[in-house]
Structures are given as structure tokens and as C-alpha cells.
Amino acid sequence: MSAVLPRSTAPGFWHRALRHRSFVLGGVLTALLLLAAGMSYLWTPWPPLEMDMANKLQGPSAAHWLGTDAFGRDVASLLLVGARASILVGVIAVGIGLVAGTALGLLAAARRGWVEEAIMRVADFSLAFPAILSAIMLTAVFGPGIVNAIVAIGIYNIPMFARIARGSANAVWAREYVAAARACGKGRLAITLQHVLPNISAALIVQITIRFAVAILAEAALSYLGLGTQPPQPSWGRMLSEAQTLMFQQPLLAVFPGMAIALAVLGLNLLGDGLRDLLDPRLARAR
């Protein structure tokens, strides 16, 4: 009785996906990000925390592919290991937002009335506190660290997912097959799990990729401010922060982590745009 969006777009999905330039480019860039983080557990050109003050601030060479920083550490190794922090923050922070926000959005759509109004007004209030501001407040109480950054970004993601889930779920609740399910005696919980949640999964998948990109950018910003990943753990944001005082001595120290952040965010945004086009049945038919 229910028409699940991912199933309706399943026939020929990969055939259309491979012809979708945004999806392909985004998928390649995202795969490179995951590959870099995974490879760093098995191999890096040099030990990422090994200092060699005699060879500090060196340019790219056969020994150090992307040069060395102010402490003589290999920049390529730092970039590979720094990808771990970005993915860790993205996965956990987006997971917090997905689980809590989707649950609240589905509850708001199922109950309606004052429950929906209360959840949405709290969500609107939460959006007044961006991830960076929330992290600053948490840091003032608990001290800087990646855990507080993850919690702050995760809390910021909750109202985002709640609004997406609630808006998409309201559209599903107005469909005929949901009315038929209610006429058959199904409760709100059963309808939500069997009909509503599967039909809003496409919108949630797209939102996951977009929020993942935002989480990576937020983590980099927090680390740049000294509120995120703490030394000696490598982080792209902290690499930028350390490079700002050496812009005239070795400008490439800022270029490489900046490019890593930009490519990671670009890849996830392109992947999200591609998934939106491919999972939307109206756009899929247009293609």
C-alpha cells in the first residue's frame, strides 16, 4: 500500500547515477576522503607526530611530498591522519542529529497539535545557537576538546533533521494509503514505522550528506579557534591555524589543508545534490 521512494527509483538507478556528473564527481571526492582516513591507519609516508627540526619548513620534495611544517613534521602524513578527525566528527555529530531529530520530527507529524507546535518552536529556538557558539559555551564549562565539538555540532543538527523529517512526514500522512492504513486500524506508531519512515528516507539520505559537509566545516572552524581537536592529534583546522603565522615563509602550509577542507565539503555537497536528483522520482523521470 505504501510507495517507497528509494524502491520506486531502484530500476536503472546506477545507470542514471553514472551519467550524473555531480553524483560521480561527489562520489569520487568523498571516496578519496574515506580512503585517506582509512589508509592513515595502515600507512603514512612518515610518522605523523615525528619532529625533525633540522628540516622544518621544507617545500615539497621526494622525501616529503607536501613539505614539512614548523616542527619538521611531514605535511602529507598530517593531512592523512587529520581526515580521521573530520570523519569522526561528521559520523557521530550527524548520527546524533539524525536519530534525535528524525524521532522528534516523526513525533511532531504523528501527534500534530500542541506537540508539533512545541517541538518546532524548540527547534526554531535551537537554530539561534550555531555550532560554533554552542561549542564556545560548552568549552567555557567543560574545557576544549573534540568531544565537546561533536556534542555541539550534533545538537545543532537535531533541529535541522527534525524540520526535514516533520515536513516530509506531513506530506506522507496526507496520502491516501496512509488514510487506508488508519481505516484498517493501524496505530500511529505502526504507520510511522511501516509507511512514513520508509517514504522520507530519500530526503534524510540527502540531508545526511549535506550535514556531513557542514560538520566537517564546523570541526575545522572549531579546531582553528582551538576549541576542537587538541594537540598533538592532527586536524585540518588546526593546521590552518598554525600556518597563518607562516604565510610569508611557507604559504603552502595553509594551501594544502585548505584544499583538503574545500574538496571534502565540495564532494559531499555534490554527492548530496546528485542523490537528491536521483532519489526524487519527478527529477528522475525528467532525466
Kindly state the percentage of residues in helix.
over 70%
Number of strands: 0
Class from helix and strand fractions: mainly alpha
Query: What does the overall shape look like?
Result: elongated
Radius of gyration: 22 Å
Number of domains: 1
Q: What integer is the average pLDDT?
A: 88
CATH topology: MetI-like fold
CATH superfamily: MetI-like
State the end-to-end CA separation: 27 Å
Strand content: under 5%
What kind of sheet is the major sheet?
none
Examine the secondary-structure arrangement and name the CATH architecture: Orthogonal Bundle
Output the CATH class name: Mainly Alpha
Instruction: Give the count of helical stretches.
Output: 12
List low-pLDDT spans. 1-10
- Give helix and strand order, one letter per element, not per position: HHHHHHHHHHHH
Note down, in words, how this protein is organized.
There is one protein chain. By secondary structure, this protein is mainly alpha-helical. It has a single domain, classed as MetI-like (MetI-like fold, Orthogonal Bundle). The chain is built from twelve helices and no strands. It has helices spanning 5-8, 13-17, 21-42, 75-111, 113-126, 131-142, 146-173, 176-183, 188-224, 236-243, 252-279, 281-286. The relative contact order is 0.17.
Can you tag this structure with a few keywords?
single chain; 287 residues; mainly alpha; MetI-like fold; 12 helices; 73% helix; elongated; disordered N terminus
